Each structure stands twice: as C-alpha cells, then as structure tokens.
Amino acid sequence: MKNFNIELPESLEKFKDRIKKTIKPYVKIKLKEQETKLWESKLGGNPYLENGMEYPKAFNGEYLRLLAQINFEEVPHLETFPEKGILQFFILADDVYGFNEPCIQDTFRVIYISNVEKNEENLIKDFSFLGELEEDWYMPFSNEGKMSFSLECMPIPWGEYRFNNVYRDMSLTDEEEEEYVEKLNIDGCKIGGYATFTQYDPRDDEKLSNFNTLLLQLDCEKECDLMFGDAGIANFFINEEDLKKLDFSRILYNWDCC
Is 5 a domain residue? Predict the structure, then answer.
C-alpha cells in the first residue's frame, strides 16, 4: 500500500503522532453524469440483474430503486473489502429515501453478487416493469452517473463515534477543535475509511456500535444533482467480520441533513 501522509494545520502539528495513528485508507468516488453499462459502478441507472434473478421489493410489495452499484473489479483494493463482484444498494423511492428502522432491510436492501456476467444476452435489459415514480416519490439524485475511484487517506474525523475514545487524553482548545473540523474532516462520496455526518453518528448508540466499517457514503455532489434532503449525507455500515464473510444481511443505513 502507498505511504499515506496528511498535511496538518500549524495549530495541530504538536498532535501529529497521535493523529497519524488514526489514518485510514479509503476510496474516493468521483461521479460523471452519463449512461453506464449494466455491470459498471454507478449512481442510479439500471442494476446488474441476470436472467431469472428476482428484482428486490420493499415489505409492501413496491419495487425498490437502485441507489448505487459498486463493481469491485474497478475499485482500488481495501483490506477486508471484496476484490471482485458487485455490491448493490437499493432504497424505496419515498420522501425519506427508504429510511425506516436503521438496520431493518424492509425499505432498503444491500445485495452482493460474487460472479459478474458481462454478456448482455444473459442479463435483464428491459426495466419498464418498474414503471414511472409517482408524483410524491423520488430519489436523491436527478441523473445517472458513472463512478470512478482513487485511493486516498484520512484521519478520524470530529464527530465519529470513536473520536473521543481515541483522543480521550488529548485536550484541544476551541481554536484547535475548529481547525480539526475544518481541515481534517474529509467529506464526499467514499468507500471505507471514516464516515462524516451532518448531525451526529448513530453508532453513539451502544446497540449500533458494532457496525464499525463504512461500506458506502454518498454526499452532496453537483454532478448528477446528488443530495439527501437539505445538504444531507447518507451512510451504509457493516460489521467488519460480516464484511470478511461477504455477509450483507446486517446493514446499518442512515442519512441526516441540515
């Protein structure tokens, strides 16, 4: 893995060694508004679905809609994450973007497909059965987007549920806190690393603290008009051991906004 370094503001240089220990790699996602192939990584658009596969539905029988799809063959490798296969994120296209109970996959689904078929003859191409969305139902983006990826790094951000424990004996002045938030909180769309939030980390709740790995973060982007609510951020989390086993049955989905 490449040697990651971060530039610290002068006020935080004295904490360099402490901050450096928290640095994690993550995959930065860049969006470009365009149509995609069925097996490509994307925001929105049509999902990868082989002939005979069942399209995912919500508990009420409504079809879920593709929020995002990650083809790990296109992604720089992160430890514990798959090196191949497709991971799909579906949500109910309602006024809360499929948010219900954070861990109940009734109004959202995360699906992993280990082997990818690139012969379109073996894939479903006609998704007209989904129909048009009703007037009051919508997705958090306006246009389909192709994803590209780069490997980056980041320290633990202010507001992450492990922050206070990691720095429990490090006192920051008000100015240093502001500098940390402004310079070291890395927002944006990403895979892995640390999550950021508009409001607070739901994993402060001890019952949710075992969802310790960020699968996907979607932040506001002008490209594709991506936005959850009012400048919101959406996150999908999994337990690291479940990720290693490629078991996506237990997922924490959360989004918040201003």
Answer: no
